[in-house]
Design goal:
Family: Belongs to the SecB family.
Subunit structure: Homotetramer, a dimer of dimers. One homotetramer interacts with 1 SecA dimer.
Largest sheet: 4 strands, antiparallel
Strand content: 35-45%
InterPro entries: SecB, SecB-like_sf
Oligomer: single chain
Protein name: Protein-export protein SecB
Number of strands: 4
Low-confidence stretches: 1-5
Order of helices and strands: EHEEEHH
Keywords: Chaperone, Cytoplasm, Protein transport, Translocation, Transport
Radius of gyration: 20 Å
Helix content: 25-40%
């Protein structure tokens, strides 16, 4: 039997608890309604995802932010139908994750846990905003994490001064 949160192999058991989650900021602009026009046109929807994480003052607690910027335009004309911005935060208690694996854990596993709640908010707000509910496809947080690492690596040499 394992003691002190360790597995039988002696490795620490990873523990992750969602302590809280909330909307930090949200904005939905029904541009089509503001212009006083209606549209039955085919929409073209773009979704941008940004992630951030930071340590809280309490031991083993982290705050993970998922920011979505969703813009829907008419495919044929490019006219904006709506713009939706959402900052969603989860507060996590995480223990047993090795220090070298904590960063990817925070930016992959934590947003993955919150995603069903984000999806529901996006669906409800777009529906309540006068559009068909937007049901987001699953987001590949691993790919987002890898793309961000690659982007930072290509920027790092460019930002260093040459001699």
């Amino acid at each position: 039997m394992a003691e002190n949160g360790a597995t039988e192999g002696g490795q620490p058991q990873i523990q992750m608890n969602v302590l809280g989650q909330f909307i930090r900021d949200m904005s939905f602009e029904n541009v089509m309604a503001q212009k006083g026009t209606g549209s039955d046109a085919q929409p073209d929807v773009s979704v941008q995802v940004n992630l951030d994480a930071k340590k809280r003052t309490t031991e083993n607690q982290y705050e993970v932010l998922t920011k979505l910027v969703i813009e829907s335009k008419v495919k044929e004309t490019g006219d904006v139908l709506f713009v939706f911005e959402l900052e969603y935060v989860g507060i996590f208690n995480i223990a047993g994750v090795p220090e070298d694996q904590l960063h990817p854990f925070l930016l992959i596993e934590c947003p993955r846990m919150l995603f069903p709640f984000l999806r529901r908010i996006v669906s409800d707000v777009t529906r309540d905003g006068g559009f068909p509910p937007l049901n987001l496809d699953n987001i590949d947080f691993v790919a987002i994490y890898r793309n961000e690492l690659a982007r930072r690596q290509t920027e790092a040499p460019a930002s260093q001064p040459t001699q």
